[in-house]
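Lab notebook, bench 4. The sequencing result for the construct came back, and we need a structural model before the next group meeting so we can plan mutations. Quick request posted to the team channel:

Model the 3D structure of this chain.
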Amino acid sequence: MLGLVGSSDHHAVLTQIDIGVVRDEAISRTVWLWDKVDWASLRRDMSHTACGTLLRDGADNMSRALTSRLLALQRHHVPHRDYTTKPTDQPWFGYRCRVAAEAKYSAWLRFKRNPTRRNKDLHRATSRRIMVNFAPEKTQAMVVSRSPAAGPAVEGRLRFGGVPLPLQEAVKVLGVEVDRELKFDGHIKYIAKKASHRVSALRMVARFLDRGGKLLLYKAQIRPYLEYAALSWMSCAASHTRRRDSIQRRALRLVDAADPPDPPDPPAQFEPVSPLDSLEHRRDVAALVVFHKAQVQGVPHLAGLRQPPRVATRSTRAVLTSGDAVEVPRSHASQHQRTFVGRVSRMLNIFTAAVPHILEMNTQSVKLAANRWRLLKPTPLRLVIL
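Done. Here's the predicted structure in token form:
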């Protein structure tokens, strides 16, 4: 079972928890109608919350009390509907699917009992409503090309459902924005701005929390925001990654700030918080673990990341002779050398030379070994082409 404080650490991420529901068991689900929320009354009740009375007695108790308060406000102010799923429902089969399926079944029964033209048309109409419809206004189109004339050449020629699609300078996929030059600069700036706002929010409530509570709040609400899809945008310029590092340093200064003198705490609670791993350290460990899954474990959906093994014709100090080494993609572009495959292939060759027998390791063992190995390396880690 994961504890509240350690739920974002390296060791806890790989812990597996079986939360599946037995197929012959019906469960209750809640549909929250966020488009019908009375935000004014919700903000008013939140402003009247006595944070000084609510947030006390340790980080775990404060997190439970705050979560209970927020859930109570959500249930009171957000309209919702509770319904029970059938044992045969798929996980993606939600409330709207249930309503549409029942309407289609009722129309079919009505048509079977009375096969008139009107009932047949009603059944066809309900069948069309349950079908998936693609909205052209939600479709993104972007031209990726080195030629500046590529965009105007296809402007107005791309159509979806008869509707022309406007070309965009950047598209967002699963919350990650990439521009027409396959760069993530805009995404990094946006995330850094949002994370900075969250640090400011942490400062507003810091006086109600002890060191453990502030550190817990940073791990739960700020650091995951800085690390989301990190392996996709790790090729960005060093100036953008340094900006994220500065946000973490700013949050840690806030965490290590002195607690209020009243009420006095025991001396043991004034011990400094253990330093967190740098964001680059965590990215490198995650990259090695993902590459081990692709290269050694042969995970099918990561097959595109696999690299051919290195064949060394001779052993020198400049050529690693480890049998687990892989070929490093050659490139003179600094951005390509910072991509996932370009960086992790170099790291893996150094890692396998220092940590043998990775072919016999499971995911958790590789994660622990990569964490220990990365602690011995400087940050930032400069890699050379080997």
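The chain is about 45% helix and 5% strand.
Will bring this to the meeting.
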